[in-house]
From TrEMBL:
This is Formiminotransferase N-terminal subdomain-containing protein. Coiled coil: none annotated. It comes from Labeo rohita. Residues 9-190 form the Formiminotransferase N-terminal subdomain domain. Pfam families: FTCD_N. InterPro entries: Formiminotransferase_C_sf (IPR037070), Formiminotransferase_N (IPR012886), Formiminotransferase_N_sf (IPR037064), FormiminoTrfase_cat_dom_sf (IPR022384), FTCD (IPR051623).
């Protein structure tokens, strides 16, 4: 299959695992996506990026392949993560519920739709619970029969609670969750970016005020933004999931702001808030309280960047693209 043909069928998975302090372990999980059980390279699959956060003790592994190959690659990585990560001994600031905490699939190519990714995600959740005894999953987005979003499903499951009672969780797939593996969120949606803005304070209450003000559900909030305020490296981080929203940019975004990046899925237009807007809004709100910001970190890429880099990696047969990323994308 030519690169251009392959590009039309690409799917991305931003695999979230509950480990960042053992980098060798995280890379072992990543390599499991691009090699089989005999150590042979899987063609047509690349790991674009590995993002580690030691305070959160959480890593995000960006896996891209055609929709025909994505399930096998991601499932292999999930199996390896489950064999190496024990939630009985996990410690970290970021909320989490599973050794493999989140498995979202995002369509990148124009020949892949949300329904396609939803079916793959559902099949992946089933395969994981069948192949790793004791694992269980909840579904979200286009993998869920009600198409409930990730934020809603996390609230229903109890993902945000500090003390988890596994006996109260009702998974969609698999047995009652155990502490060993926890429960994994598996689903499909339009692309989601992570944009984290650090504010120069240790005051978590202030961070929560800022987070609440930019949250989509708040009056004047930013469409598509789901957000938490978390202690991070001695400061407070405004950690945002930037969901893609259907249609063009909101009318309020035209007042000198950076254009909202847009893309299409199945002929429908989607867009997402730019990082510059989120940073500016956090800076403005923090400044009202006499606090500055220290910087912004993007976890992963925009949808267009993800597709472009994946096509480049796959055309060169580069599975461990994360090792070359700093040379081609800064």
């Amino acid at each position: 299959m030519s690169c251009s043909a392959l590009g039309r069928r690409l799917v991305a998975c931003l695999l979230n695992i509950s480990e960042a302090r053992r980098r060798d372990l995280v890379e072992t999980v990543a390599r499991s996506a691009i090699t089989d059980t005999h150590g042979n390279k899987r063609e047509g699959i690349t790991v674009l990026n590995i993002f580690n956060d030691v305070d959160y003790n959480r890593s995000v592994i960006t896996i891209v392949a055609s929709i025909d190959l994505i399930r096998e690659a991601v499932l292999s990585a999930c199996e390896r993560a489950c064999s190496l990560i024990d939630m009985n001994v996990h410690e970290g600031i970021h909320p989490c519920m599973g050794a493999v905490d989140l498995v979202p699939l995002y369509p990148l190519g124009e020949e892949v739709g949300l329904d396609d990714c939803g079916k793959e995600a559902h099949a992946l959740a089933t395969a994981l619970t069948e192949q790793v005894t004791g694992t269980s999953a909840f579904l979200f987005g286009w993998a869920d029969s009600q198409r409930r979003g990730l934020a809603k499903r996390r609230k229903e499951i109890g993902w945000f609670k500090k003390v988890l009672d596994m006996s109260t969780i009702k998974p969609d797939v698999g047995p009652q969750p155990t502490r060993r593996y926890g429960v994994t969120g598996v689903g499909a949606s339009p692309y989601v970016m992570n944009c984290n803005v650090t504010i120069d304070t240790r005051d978590l209450a202030l961070g929560r005020i800022v987070a609440s003000a930019i949250r989509e559900s708040s009056p004047g909030g930013i469409p598509g933004v789901q957000v938490m305020a978390l202690p991070h490296e001695g400061d407070v981080e405004i950690a945002c999931n930037v969901e893609s929203v259907q249609g063009g940019p909101p009318l309020s975004s035209s007042n000198g702001e950076e254009k909202w990046p847009s893309f299409t899925i199945g002929g429908q237009i989607f867009c997402h808030a730019p990082a510059s807007l989120i940073t500016a809004r956090v800076a403005e709100l923090s400044r009202h309280h006499g606090v500055g910001i220290k910087g912004t970190a993007l976890v992963g890429f925009t949808p267009r960047e993800c597709q472009r880099l994946a096509e480049r990696a796959l055309s060169n047969g580069t599975g461990e693209f994360w090792k070359e990323l700093h040379r081609v994308h800064m």
